[in-house]
From TrEMBL:
It comes from Afipia massiliensis. This is LacI family transcriptional regulator. It holds the Pfam family LacI. SUPFAM superfamilies: lambda repressor-like DNA-binding domains (SSF47413), Periplasmic binding protein-like I (SSF53822). Residues 3-59 form the HTH lacI-type domain. SMART domains: HTH_LACI (SM00354).
Length: 333
């Protein structure tokens, strides 16, 4: 028999209304943290999931969040989706996922926000600030941004991409590399700027002059990484830092085609980590980022907003650390 809210309340030793408020994600300061945790533990132990349809009928809400991502085949966004699913399920919400490529003119924001389909939006977007602001403000729907900032919009959860890029350059410089190329994101993008700044921070720390010729725009695709790497081959970098795992993979393919050995001739690494990094040849060195945690925190933040809360801004999430594999080695002599 399916567990009921009353069963959760009984196991946690609280009344039904208190259990209901906690499981709806309400931010009630009168409920002690230990009581809240006891209720959540009881719900997990009983495998209790709220009847979201009934809740929606009572509150005129759909009990659904919309999550919009620009790339479905990027492991970074797959990880963020897992985190958002974890949070939304914990609070009794469903998660509706939509794909919208950068610069697209479709009405995905309106499709999700209108007709009571989604109470709020989690948005990962590569669009420029002006377009994104126009799209989001026209929906009149609460939103939280994932891994980007938008002037005047305080609710965002971002990764510390600047610190991650510096960690990567540190690793390469400590192995003697001085001609370190960077496969950059789209010019003008928030994260592209942060990664480039971190790359330059790392060079400066090790006394390596910044050479703009060693920076090539790759965007966020394997094809972009491959094209950028081809444009850099004549400059003979000894190491390459991809802005993402995907662009690093594209660069590796071009190096193989050119008859260069990784890492004997050129070391390669990327920002972000995923199981696919171990399937490349050689396995890719990376800087692991808390992308799943980012999705989880963003969903928590949005649900807090929907329940009338005024959450504090979230500090950038620090990298999880360097993951050294076989694609990086000492600089060639």
């Amino acid at each position: 028999m399916r567990p009921r809210l009353a069963d959760v309340a009984r196991m946690a030793g609280v009344d039904i209304s208190t259990a209901s408020r906690v499981l709806r994600g309400e931010t009630n300061q009168r409920i002690r943290d230990e009581t809240r945790e006891r209720i959540l533990k009881s719900a997990r132990a009983l495998d209790y999931s709220p009847n979201t349809l009934a809740q929606g009928l009572r509150t005129s809400r759909s009990q659904t969040l919309g999550l919009i991502v620009p790339q479905l085949d990027n492991p970074v966004f797959a990880s963020a989706i897992r985190g958002a699913e974890k949070s939304s399920a914990r609070h009794g919400y469903s998660l509706l996922i939509a794909h919208r490529e950068s610069g697209a003119t479709d009405a995905v924001y309106h499709r999700l926000s209108h007709g009571n389909r989604a109470d709020g939006l989690l948005v990962a977007s590569l669009d420029d600030d002006r377009l994104l602001r126009e799209e989001l403000e026209s929906t009149h729907t609460p939103f939280v941004l994932l891994n980007r900032q938008l002037p005047g919009s305080p609710y965002c959860v971002v990764l510390d991409s600047r610190a991650a890029a510096t960690i990567a350059v540190d690793h390469l410089a400590q192995m003697g590399h001085r001609r370190i190329a960077h496969l950059a994101g789209r010019p003008g993008g928030f994260n592209a700027g942060e990664r480039l700044a971190g790359y330059r921070d790392g060079l400066k720390r090790h006394g390596i002059p910044f050479d703009p010729k060693l920076v090539a725009v790759a965007g966020y695709t394997a094809e972009g990484g491959a094209d950028a790497m081809r444009s850099l081959l004549a400059l003979k970098p000894t190491a390459v830092l991809g802005a993402t795992l995907v662009t690093a993979a594209g660069a590796m393919a071009v190096l193989h085609e050119a008859g260069l050995q990784i890492p004997r001739d050129v070391s390669v690494m990327g920002l972000h980590d995923a199981p696919v990094a171990t399937m490349l040849y050689p396995q890719l060195t990376s800087v692991k980022m808390p992308t799943e945690l980012m999705g989880e925190i963003a969903s928590d933040l949005l649900i807090d907003l929907l329940n009338g809360g005024t959450p504090e801004p979230v500090a950038p999430l620090a990298p999880d650390g360097l993951v050294v594999r076989a694609s990086t080695g000492p600089a060639p002599r």
